[in-house]
Amino acid sequence: CIAAFNSPVSCTLSGSVDAVEAVQRELAEAFRQRNIFLHVLNVPAAYHSPSMDMILGELEEQIEPLEKQKGEIEVISTLTGVAASENDFARGKFWARHTREPVAFTQAIQTAARGRENVVFVEISPHRALQRSIKETLGKGTKVFSSLQTDAEYQTLFTLVGNLFELGFNPNWQHFYNGYQSVPVAIPRYQFDRQKLMGILDIHQRANQRGVSASHPLIYGINSDNVEFGCLVSQDTTPYLYEHKNNGVALVPGAFYVELGLASVMSSSRPKVPLSTCQLSISFSAPCVLTQNSQVLSIKLSPQKATTTFEVLSSSNAVYAAGQVTKGLEGAVEESSISFQAIYRRCKSVISREELYEALSQVGFQYGPIFRQLSDVHYCQELKEAITSIKVNEETIRDMYSYCIHPVLLDCFLQMTAVLTSRTLQSRAGFPSGIGSLVVLRPLEEEMMIYMRMSKSAGNCLEVCGCFVDKHGSVLAELKRVAITFMKEVSSRENEYLFENKWKEVSLSQTIGHLGFKPRVLVFADKFGIAEQLKSYLHPASRYVMYEDWECLVEGDTQNKMRAEVKDYDEILFLWGIQKLNEDFPGKAVDQMAKCCEAYRQVVVALREKTSRCSIRVITYRTTERYVDHLNCGFALYGMTRTCIVEVPEITFQLIDLSSSTSLDISVLADVLVKYNAGDYSEVCISQGRIYILFQKAALKELQKTVHAWISSMDMKLFRHLSDIPVYEPQKQLFKQNAVYVVAGGLTGLGFETVKFIAENGGGCIAILSRRIPSSEKQEELRALQQQYKGSKVVSVQCDVASTSDVEKAFQSIANTFVGTPIKGVFQSAVALHDGRLEVLKLADFHKVLSPKVAGTLNLHRATRGQELDYFVCYSSVTSFLGNATQTNYAAANSFLDVFCLYRRNCGLSGQAINWG
To answer: Model-level pTM?
Structure first.
């Protein structure tokens, strides 16, 4: 039965264990395409269900009698969903009903908010639990703050008070600091520079007040002369923007900049002018990537007589878009109406809505439901024209008339260009680069049509024109010279050197091989409870080995211990990689990772010595793609396992990654262990009850042996044989003159080639980190390089990147050398090699190879915290995903780099691993 109505889209079910598990599986299978949220609650009994009937009478008797007191504030009951009466709380039956009847949380929240403006909810609980339900009930913009959070109590309370203070709540400061008195801070003794700056807090306060002070839902004035405006972009203020993605990355659409520019100019105009007499032109300069954090865009105006120019900038003054608005133009459009009936007669080809969005998806664009508003498109090949109808969805209708032209609707026009491009420049990724003219004659309507025609096609650019028209053919808005710029096309031959990992969902019905009996396994158990949860699914004779038992042995005894553990088991489950690492202690992270790799090596060697045919399944936690949110030893086990597959073909290996430790995912993991052969799929990911397998698109030649020999010898003659790896990249300046680029390991090999590449492509300041002082020959090469590229200055700093203190000193030296110049790029090419077969490798060999790549990368990551890097590039190897016999430690180090770059990207930072091969 339903135990709680959490929100209009969420509820809680309660019942017996078997019933709950059955309905959970049915829902996961029935809605597998919709990615619904399913989670089993850890409770001792089935509350709010018939299971409670037997205790209701006793509960009512035990509670009564209760003494009624006079209430001071209104209390809304989650039993009834309305305000409770004075007598309710004094009756035992009222409290007993709470145990049996469903929780009316949705109705209670609606009652609390009804008739109130600017409602703020403060959740008083040990951790955040109700925020999602409240926002689903009242809208994403609803403000819900936590009051407590485990292990961060003070910080959470301070954040709560700060948030409330921003919204106008004035706390009793004397009471706030009571019991927390301390010695006052010293009076500042430094010289103030007396420069007035607007702090980010002030900006956010103004942004939060914009609904009161401004007539536009996006912009607010920053200064009194109306030449600068701000716009707060966040999940709360502009949630629809996060549905506009390219290759999975949320980007601000160009249509949004159009609205910001047009609205800012209209707000600043004195005297006011009609929107229909204004003409906008705009060019888009750079993409704005949306992160989970809020960001403030500024719009700066330069008014002239009839024209006002504008720029849309980031908080660091990077220009996203620039344009101008010309005012006072009468009759600025070419046609006031069109014969859409004649156009439909000409456009006989029909592209379905699904085909259109599939074409957009093929070139990297993904849209959420708010942006997917186009209908079937009718197209004429001869005249290169297209027309479609659009019915605006309810969410957009609510505020479309508050905008000059709603960004979602203008983006629908830009989406239609996919029809023209797919018929002319197939499979080309194109981005809007500018609009020559936009005139909005009348407000857009809830039902209308979009017409588009190609006006020009040259090289990598396509221009279209078109309009929004009403049901009678009258033009609502006209667009001309809308430019779409295409990315450089990569030849099929070049693609032979590229690959792409894809995860494909499979169902349990596709499994083969096993009969479904409980396997008798040897489990190298983790400390976080995953192995413990698996116990009920495994054979009672399974054995569990803890990491601490192995770690406490002296090095010589660990291998003997491992030989003794490996007996006649069906399979081995290795969960010791589920160890969280602290990025603030790089040396300790290397120690833990090296020990984990050494333990794994000993398992493989012990099995090999016994000529055992059992399989090894390595289970990791949140180490794949979008799930990576912390550092753990599993980063290295991926590369190590892929090499073991090559070096020890007689043993079957499988990698399984869990995205959560919920009972649903654990039960699916058990299904994989029981119903799948380890050899069926080498890599598996389990997320929200779904099973995904890995496969690679395109081909990659086996060049890892060549590149390994090359790295070992560092023979520079080999560089002339390397092909440039092509990328989808428009022609632009890759590096900046007034920026520092740090190259670790930049005196030899790939590192020195990187230094030359940066200088050749405009990099003004290059800092090389190397353990060695450059030789006289290398110093001569550096001088020649600076002479060849006059604008570049190259310095070499002696530094072992694996040493935290060395890196800190090096970055201080860089700051002193290039005073006031920001660091914009880091290239990590540090490498150490110590090859050997599994039987001869030791703990020290793992430590030696892991140190420069793991500790070095973490030190560079820490040293550049708080800096907006354009590049954080790690030089990895094809060995990390293809494997190469005798290089398990090298593969482990490189797969760490691969996953660490995913971790940085998931944190909203730049990160790119290049697998050389």
So the answer is: 0.50
